[in-house]
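Here is one chain, start to finish.
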Amino acid sequence: MNSAAASLPVVGARSGIATRPWVMTLLVGAAVLAVGAALVDGLPVGVTNDDGMYVILAKSLATGHGYRWLNLPGTPAATHFPPGYPAVLALLWLLVPAFPTNVILFKLANALFMAVAAAATFSLARQRLAMSDAAAAALTLGATLGIPMLTLSTIVMSEALFLALLVPTLLLAERVCDERGKLRDVLVLAVLAGAATFVRTHGIALVAAIMLVLALRRRWYEALIVAGIALTMLAPWQIWVSIHSSAVPAAMRGNYESYGAWLAAGFRVDGMALVGRTVARTTTELASMLATLVAPSMPGLVRLAGLGALLASLVVGARELWRRAPVTAGFLGFYLLIVVLWPFSPTRFVWGVWPLVLLLPTLAARRALTWRPVAPATRAIRVGALACCALLACGYATYNVRGYRHQWWSSIPRSVSASGRELMLWIGNHAPSDAVIATEVESAVYLYTGRMTVPVSTFTVQEYFTPRTPRENAAAIREIVERYRPRAVVVTSIRMRDAVRELALATPPALAVVDTFPAGGVVLVPISR
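Its structure:
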């Protein structure tokens, strides 16, 4: 550790429990684990589709089929998600092979991952940012038990595992970059950074941040080691992806093939103009999301003022973070750059590293608290800054209190569970066990009914900016139906009902309605010609 960081006192650490950081670290982790375990529910997987797809890949690995989409006819190779999180779920599947019983285990594992992330965040705040035990614990609990992280960690998604890998790796990276230590530490750091990228592709920002800080300190050899090992680890996955491209119809590639190919298809349509469109859209969404978190249900001017105060605190906090933990600051910078340039809703990506994002306004608030200006004008600025920080904290607390009251973390699974139950019952009662079903929730249908499935919805870059028309959706469904000839097409959303109506009313018709169910579901069968 550099001399500046090593000499920073831990504010508020005096005696007793404060002299034993591991005790507080354990307590913080245990608190997060207890809350996470208490929130584990029996709601099904597959309601957000991604969670069901992770479970399908875990089943494929655990049952010896390799990395394949077991739900699709022909079980094509999987290239959409990196294999890190499905591999961990596969190990758990081997321990408890009974589905859906093992879904509880998957959710408990996410609670454990969040506890690890919380303990590491507490250590990062205390060791690198010189926070007191109380301040570090408050920051950690407010971030990991806030609605943003709970929404992602209480369902079977990869963010909790990614954060559990990311924050300890950042701690090691800060130490390695401070000291010219053993080569072994550099090697371990490179492997951990590569492993994080295997869980979520955005982990490449971690590799870039480590290389940047090492390069700025003219430690070129170690920077090249980190890059070489990380890229070597990722090479087999990239080879797998390239070998197994174009394995499904074009209408399905956004959902089932690589994000690189998905993005390339977007550039083929829009060219470089896609970058400008994306930045305009993602920054607007980020501003709206952040304003909601710090000024919930407030009038427009109040939300705007709250957003301005938050952005100012993020800038001040980023400067403080760079001074004390440059790898962490570099990671956040690269990560948020990817988020802003990626043509997809940025909320999930920002929430996935929420404890690190929350570091910035926390550091800004501490800077305002410790600032001791002399001139009256600057003293007034300090008072205003402290007032803004207090209002931001109150807004965030209000948002979370409302979220706990209404259990927002499970709002998506609860909202789809009723229609999902009806859909599963219809398929179980009417579709033969060897039938192929085309549906919007294909991962859930496969997992809970055992039927092979194909999607009816598409996922393209352009859909982020302009929803597809019923005719465009109908064309995609026609392509999938002609390729796989499903026994039935079952849809529930208004968007998909409008699309299948186009096919049912076409001349000649491609689909015929044979049944409905109360939650708005429509069942159609292809018309043979």
